[in-house]
Specification:
Layout: E1 4-10, H1 17-27, E2 32-38, H2 44-50, E3 54-58, H3 63-77, E4 82-85, H4 97-102, E5 109-113, H5 125-142, E6 154-157, H6 158-164, H7 174-185, E7 190-194, H8 209-227
Parallel strand pairs: 1-2, 1-4, 2-3, 5-7
Antiparallel strand pairs: 4-6, 5-6
Helix pairs in contact: 3-6, 5-8, 7-8
């Protein structure tokens, strides 16, 4: 597949961004790399440029959803056929890029799942319970498994790029859970692929585990409500 963009949303990730870019280039030298500098107050933008990435800098921090909306707009305007989202903190293993890209042969979105037999990744407690409920709700809505709906390691094909360039939620977890709900309602095909994820190399999460669990519970209720509504089809789809 040609015309692939690896999009890396980054907020104060000067300690890890160069290594992430280098690993992406090592595994997919054919891909263009875009870093969306999300209002960083450190040297993230300069380090990313020095590492060879194209950098778009936002004037203030808008969150991952807003940063990825920027990335999808960039991809649409420049004619990319595929986009892969990779975190700037080193959690995602670029060795899995091939799986996410190859999965687009028969899907519009491929979600990298941490939860598979060979995975050592563990999430426990209330956050895990909420994720299971959310997974079941989205899987039912999708009529196919989505075992890791909060995974930000995912790919999008041309139809998904066109959709997300104009309709992409910016609230917390909107870039993961919310975008999947939108894609399902618009008739996009969503598959998943096993990937390896690590704990972040630098910095700290923006939300603590309890807060995340409570939000996931609220998101589950929203997904259930959404699944009761009729979804629209994308323009140009066959009737």
């Amino acid at each position: 597949m040609t015309g692939m963009l690896v999009a890396i949303p980054a907020w104060n990730e000067q300690g890890s961004i160069a290594d992430v870019i280098a690993k992406v280039r090592e595994h997919r030298p054919d891909a263009d790399v875009l870093v969306v500098n999300d209002g960083s107050t450190d040297d993230t933008a300069a380090v990313a440029r020095e590492a060879g990435a194209t950098v778009v800098s936002l004037p203030f921090n808008v969150g991952v959803g807003g940063a990825m909306r920027t990335a999808f707009l960039h991809a649409k305007r420049n004619g990319y056929q595929a986009l892969v989202q990779v975190d700037a903190d080193g959690q995602h293993d670029p060795a899995d890029l091939d799986r996410l890209i190859e999965g687009l042969a028969d899907a519009d979105v491929v979600v990298g799942t941490r939860f598979h037999p060979d995975s050592m990744y563990f999430v426990g407690g209330p956050r895990r319970w909420a994720m299971v409920l959310l997974s079941k709700s989205l899987s039912r809505m999708n009529k196919a498994p989505i075992s890791d709906p909060t995974s930000g390691f995912r790919s999008a094909g041309k139809r998904a790029i066109d959709l997300f360039a104009v309709d992409y939620p910016a609230d917390y977890l909107g870039d993961t859970v919310g975008s999947l709900a939108i894609a399902i309602r618009r008739g996009l095909v969503i598959h998943e692929a096993p990937v390896t994820m690590y704990f972040r190399q630098t910095g700290r999460p923006s939300k603590n585990a309890l807060w995340s669990a409570l939000y996931l519970g609220r998101a589950t209720l929203a997904i259930i409500a959404t699944s009761l509504q009729k979804g629209g089809r994308m323009r140009g789809d066959d009737a």
